[in-house]
């Protein structure tokens, strides 16, 4: 299993590069010129997302560092006891949709403290690997094309996050036995 | 919704900091995050340019259109508003594939290319189209086959079996993605 995953990770990008460029060359595409033409857009897109990213990251950062997130964790704690979910993973569940770096830090901390092969370690791993940082993705993707009205995307993203979290708890309990 | 959430994050943070008598926390957090945002965008330029270059070659070779036609049975149902040979579908497929394989740094350029293509169908409005919302629903909840980052962390932490969480991750993401697709279909009507 591990071997397969490592092999795919190592070879995916070189293979893709080789395949696309040789296919293009065979189809008569002027590969160098075409590559440069495409790459020209990179700068514009990256610059375009800056205002959206600043808006989103500033809000998340204030929310996090002022201690509001910690209070949310405290408020939700009793609910977790009822659902039989270890309270240690609560900060990770709250942080996950807001900050990728922040939640990865929490997950790494949990894995280090409790051990990678502990129940909490496995649960934290599953939670962290299972979802993307909703608010960050929305800001970057919509920002790149100047979309300001997100419609129901936020609600859908958060519903998916909640589902993934509950599914992680359920399946880790089932597979690894508490 | 995003207006309310955004406002709540900032105002509740300011309120909390004021209540604890630590106003400096807000200032530091805001300035630091603004810097991080720009740094992220600048670091994205290189990898973005690289993948967009590769994408352009793929597009001119007709590969993106071929991919789009290949997954037509699936995308026809998910994205009825996109013409069946539109390059957006090829870019969406590449983005989702990169996500599934845990190739984060390739997923973003593919995804942003897909957004650009979708925006051409959206009449340059500043409101998300149905197809964009569906794409983001898929993207944020995407099935993950290889959570590469977390496997790396488990390996470093001395796990006996770093990849044992692949199965649980696939299960959790499959459920999440299913809910996202259904929720998107239902909520679409209420957010015109």
TrEMBL record, chain A:
Instruction: Name the chain's protein.
Output: Spore maturation protein
Coiled-coil ranges per UniProt: none
Q: Which UniProt keywords apply?
A: Membrane, Transmembrane, Transmembrane helix
GO cellular component labels: plasma membrane
Query: Highest taxon of the source?
Result: Bacteria
**Residue span(s) of domain Nucleoside transporter/FeoB GTPase Gate:** 46-148
**Transmembrane segments annotated in the record for this chain:** 7-25, 45-63, 154-172
UniProt cross-references to InterPro entries, sorted A to Z? Gate_dom, SpmB
Pfam families noted in UniProt: Gate
- Which organism encodes this protein? Thermanaerosceptrum fracticalcis
Q: Which residues form the signal peptide?
A: none
From TrEMBL, chain B:
Q: Where is the Nucleoside transporter/FeoB GTPase Gate domain?
A: 42-153
Regions crossing the membrane: 33-54, 131-153, 165-183
Question: Residue span of the signal peptide, if any?
Answer: none
Keyword annotations from UniProtKB, A to Z: Membrane, Transmembrane, Transmembrane helix
Q: Name one Pfam family in it.
A: Gate
| InterPro entries in alphabetical order | Gate_dom (IPR011642)
Protein name, per record? Spore maturation protein
The organism is Thermanaerosceptrum fracticalcis
């Amino acid at each position: 299993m591990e071997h397969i995953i490592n092999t795919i990770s190592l070879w995916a990008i070189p293979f893709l590069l080789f395949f696309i460029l040789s296919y293009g060359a065979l189809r008569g595409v002027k590969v160098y010129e075409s590559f440069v033409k495409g790459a020209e857009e990179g700068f514009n897109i990256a610059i375009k997302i800056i205002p959206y990213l600043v808006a989103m990251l500033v809000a998340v950062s204030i929310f996090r560092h002022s201690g509001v997130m910690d209070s949310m964790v405290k408020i939700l704690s009793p609910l977790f006891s009822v659902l039989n979910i270890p309270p240690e993973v609560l900060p990770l569940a709250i942080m996950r949709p807001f900050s990728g770096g922040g939640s990865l830090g929490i997950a790494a901390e949990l894995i280090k403290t409790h051990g990678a092969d502990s129940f909490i370690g496995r649960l934290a791993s599953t939670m962290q690997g299972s979802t993307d940082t909703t608010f960050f993705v929305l800001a970057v993707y919509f920002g790149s094309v100047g979309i300001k009205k997100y419609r129901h995307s936020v609600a859908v993203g958060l519903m998916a996050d909640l589902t993934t979290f509950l599914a992680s708890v359920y399946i880790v309990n089932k597979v690894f036995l508490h | 919704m995003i207006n309310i959430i955004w406002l709540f994050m900032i105002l509740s943070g300011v309120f909390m900091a004021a209540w604890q008598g630590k106003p400096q926390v807000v200032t530091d957090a805001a300035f630091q995050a603004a810097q991080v945002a720009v740094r992220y965008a600048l670091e994205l330029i290189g990898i973005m340019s690289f993948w967009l270059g590769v994408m352009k070659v793929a597009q001119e070779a007709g590969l993106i259109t071929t991919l789009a036609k290949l997954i037509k049975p699936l995308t026809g149902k998910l994205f009825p508003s996109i013409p069946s040979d539109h390059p957006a579908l090829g870019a969406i497929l590449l983005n989702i594939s990169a996500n599934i394989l845990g190739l984060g740094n390739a997923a973003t350029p593919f995804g942003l290319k897909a957004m650009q293509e979708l925006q051409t169908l959206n009449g340059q409005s500043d409101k998300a189209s149905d197809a964009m919302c569906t794409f983001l629903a898929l993207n944020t909840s995407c099935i993950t086959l290889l959570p590469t980052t977390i496997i790396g962390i488990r390996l470093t932490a001395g796990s006996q079996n770093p990849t044992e969480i692949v199965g649980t991750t696939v299960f959790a993401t499959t459920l999440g993605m299913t809910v996202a697709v259904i929720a998107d279909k239902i909520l679409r009507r209420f957010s015109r």
